[in-house]
Amino acid sequence: MFYSDDKKQYSVLNRRTFLLYLLKVSFFGIVGWRLYDIQIKDSQKYKTLSKNNQIDVEIIYPIRGKIYDTNNKVLASNIKVFDVYIIPENTKNINKSLKELNQIIKISFSDRRKILELSKKVKKFQKIKVLENINWSQLEKIESNKLNIEGIFISQDYMRTYKFDNTFSHLIGYTNKPNREEVELPFISNMPNLEIGKDGIEKSFNPKLIGKSGQREIEVNSYGRVIREISRQESQKGNDIHITIDLRIQQYALNLLKEHKAGSAVLMNIKNGNILCMASTPSYNPNKIIQKPNKEYWDSILENELSPLTYRCIQGLYAPGSTFKMVVAIAGIVHGIIDTNTKHFCSGKIGLGDRLYHCWKNNGHGSMNVSDAIKESCDVFFYEISKKIGIDKIARVAEDFGLGKIYDIPLSNQKKGIIPSRDWKKNKYDESWYPGETLISAIGQGFVLTNPLQLAVMTSIIASNGKNVKPNIIKQNIDIEFEKLEKYQTAIEIIKSSMFKVVNESKGTAYNSRSESAPFAGKTGTSQVRRITVAERESDDFRKKEVEWKKRDHALFVGYMPIEDPKYAVSVVIEHGGSGASTAAPIAKEIFQFTKNLEI
Amino acid sequence: MLNKIQNLNYLLIFLVILISFIGAAGLYSAAGGSYNPWASRHLIRLVLFIFLAIILALINIKFIYQYAYIFFILSLLLLLSVELIGVFGKGATRWINVFGFSIQPSELIKITIILALARFYHDLKFDEIKRIKNLFFPILILFLPFSLVVIQPDLGTALSIAMLGVLILFASGIRIWKFVLGFFVLILSIPLLLNYLQPYQKDRIFSFLNPEADALGRGYQLIQSKIALGSGGLTGKGFLEGSQSYLQYLPEKQTDFIFTLIGEEFGFIGTMFIILLFLLLISVCFYVSIKSNHIFGRILSIGVGSNLFIYVIMNISMVSGLMPVVGIPLPLVSYGGSAMLAIILSLGLVLNAELNGNLKKLYNA
């Protein structure tokens, strides 16, 4: 009984033991299959994940290219600046270190509190930025105390700097962190913190100036601590840009413009179209925009009603006034409407329809030929001839002389201006052209709008006897030969002799600005910014009265130098400057004389 | 005595030493290529515990049989005192100091449970096994330590105690329908159990269900451990080349996750090798069990083998994402004295059972 029971028990036990063993083997099978899945089947996926775990790619930012003037003077460069960090694990007492640092360079209490709070959140080995863009002398003070201050870490960085502050604000522009849309730009690619050009040359040449980023692969552990560098590819410095501007002339012109609230001066080399000076005032200081905090400075710029951000040379649109008369005269000669003998009598005004059109000289100029009309800037002569020429022919000539165009220069936001014509008015206002509007346009008023660079180009084309001069701002090593517009030859000769008389003969409007040392030719312009009422015109001395600055006329002058084989063309516009003869012409004279003395 | 030493199962001892050496290599790597702090102590423990296990193998099995319940009660008291220290003292703990050694009683209790159940079924006549009333005592033996461990709370150990109990009861011939019934009772009590879980344990279960949802939080361990295993591939990255562990992406790499470190450095070949060694070790226990002429030795050996099996399967399932992370070490490989002591001593009992396998009945022999 005992034994049979025993036997039965042992056979049950054996069976159970066998089943249990089977169960265990199958469990081992499941686990083995699972490991096969992870280690063999999905191995590639986990290998990638493992690599991503360890390898971090750090971008090395390139150094931005420099910008030079025509004589290799550095206009925009980069200075070494230093950022001061604190590393929590390297100091026993962060607060103490910060206080010691504060004795060298002021750190506000709230900033110190922020750093302290941050230090509690980040990993102990992570750097916390304390000071940004400190300069050499500040660095020296810290360095000499560094042994006393625990946990300080200093890293080098570059900051864009413009040696001549306001001199090139609009032309060169400034750099700043990209905004949300700019981050998408292709040249930024993997450098979201890259400072990029925001205006002027800096903006147009971003791709060239930026250079190429480098990168280093670093191995990091699970806390983000860098263990070692795996590979390093250095960044490539950006290319330098050389512009055609001559620093000396630019500075000189700006100095002349300083006397006035707002204005511009453009000087071009007629031979190759190189712009030597493109000064505009008021301007801004790009260094103050770059240095943070800049909010106060930005606000002051934005609140300034003279809008210092406007680059008047290419963005300021003015009625060209009498400087437009050359174009009208050329149109008249080319179309056979006038010749040197054609005369018109100026009584001070002419009537057309039921309106009177006045000459600036109330008493009239008397009998005028084209040469006198330009020299003395007679309006009536041009009223008369424009009636015969018609607006469309004037417009075509104006365009031949570079007006109403946007030039192929790397400056954005050029304003095109307006050269009116019948088609233009039809398209713009859906109205037909009135004959009176031709008269107003003929003296550069009414719809006509030009920017100062266009006026300089127009003058260059006249001065070069009709060469199709194209402005240029980037230095080029090739010789440029502009195509000549043959049909304007005779007309231009007549006009040039008239422009000579404007400056160099008595009764010429700019006779007071004639120069012995640097003889030049030119044309004054005074453009109205408001309609003159009949009552004002009848009070004899309305031009002499002190009028509010904003209501004063714009003063313009265009000219070229020397008289024979001209090399330079200038355009000066002084906003609300009074008259071209009194305000703009003297500035042009100074610029010509200065340029001549440089003997470039 | 000398005869007994000659007849020791040297295959079993060899397997223990081999697996422990692999463990020491893993710990050496986990320390960044250093014997300190883990590998050296692991090896010292191995020598000490094998010595203890051989002594245990050589003492009279009747003595062990006689004191089986006493051992159980003593270890239960030890476990209880951990609870009491937890309640009245320094807060929740799993450790207790015995003669200057820090011991985790929950590891030891598994061995004394095996002993107590082995004695109970040895004493019970086969006919009496089917009686319901004879289920009371074994379930009490299991339930007391189980509930104490649950209170700690140590979900992994509690679960392994429950599984150990089920496997031993199955091996000892309890009718199958009773297991089916028990299974249903368990299913029905799951909501109750969930209610009792600590928040961090619930987190672990939820993170197990969807580790990618919170890659840096609760699921972090599991994802990193799978990356370590998977990136090892077939042959591994090479000894001391495990970047996951070297760069500290692997959590608890010296204890519960040591298997993933070995998987990363030695690949699929390495993990399969370890699994086969464990299967072999368990097979030796089963062989001893089948060979044994008395129920005490049979249940003891099956119990020890099953205990080993539960450790291994739970640990590997845990690190490979087959079950939630519950905190179970890999025997002989993971760093940690209590589990290693318990495992090696229990294998010493198997050695003893084999040496005394020819005895029939222990109480009247």
Strand count, sense and barrel status of the largest sheet of chain A are: 5 strands, mixed
Helix content of chain A: 25-40%
Helix content of chain B: over 70%
Assembly level: heterodimer
Mean pLDDT figure of chain A? 87
Question: End-to-end distance of chain B, in Å?
Answer: 20 Å
The fourth-level CATH homologous superfamily of the largest domain in chain A is DD-peptidase/beta-lactamase superfamily
Which characteristics define this entry?
heterodimer; A: 600 residues; alpha+beta; Penicillin-binding protein 2a (Domain 2); Beta-lactamase; five-stranded antiparallel β-sheet; 22 helices; 39% helix; B: 365 residues; mainly alpha; two-stranded antiparallel ribbon; 2 strands; globular
Condensed summary:
The complex is a heterodimer of chains A (600) and B (365). With 600 residues, chain A is α+β, with helices and mostly antiparallel strands.
Would you kindly provide a written description of the structure presented here, covering whatever features stand out?
The complex is a heterodimer of chains A (600) and B (365). Chain A folds into 3 domains: 2-41; 58-242, Penicillin-binding protein 2a (Domain 2) (Alpha-Beta Complex); 247-598, 3-Layer(aba) Sandwich (Beta-lactamase). In chain A, 39% of the residues lie in helices and 19% in strands. Chain A contains 22 helices and 19 strands. In chain A, the strands form 6 sheets. In chain A, strands 2, 3, 4, 5 and 10 form a 5-stranded mixed β-sheet that branches. Chain A has a 5-stranded antiparallel β-sheet with strand order 12-11-19-18-17, with helices on both faces. Chain A has a 3-stranded antiparallel β-sheet with strand order 1-8-9. In chain A, helix 9 (247-257) packs antiparallel against helix 22 (580-598). Chain A is elongated. The mean pLDDT of chain A is 87. With 365 residues, chain B is mainly alpha-helical. Chain B contains 14 helices and 2 strands, in the order H-H-H-H-E-E-H-H-H-H-H-H-H-H-H-H. In chain B, strands 1-2 form a two-stranded antiparallel sheet. The longest helix of chain B is centred in the last third of the chain and has 34 residues, at 258-291. The relative contact order of chain B is 0.15. The chains are: A alpha+beta (600), B mainly alpha (365). The A-B interface holds A 5-6, 8-9, 12-14, 16-17, 19-21, 24-25, 27-28, 30-32, 34-36, 38-40, 42-43, 45-47, 49-51, 53-54, 219-223, 227 and B 125-127, 167, 170-173, 224, 226-234, 243-244, 246-249, 263, 267-268, 271-272, 275, 278-279, 282-283, 286, 289-290, 295, 298, 302, 305-306, 309, 313, 316-317, 320-322.
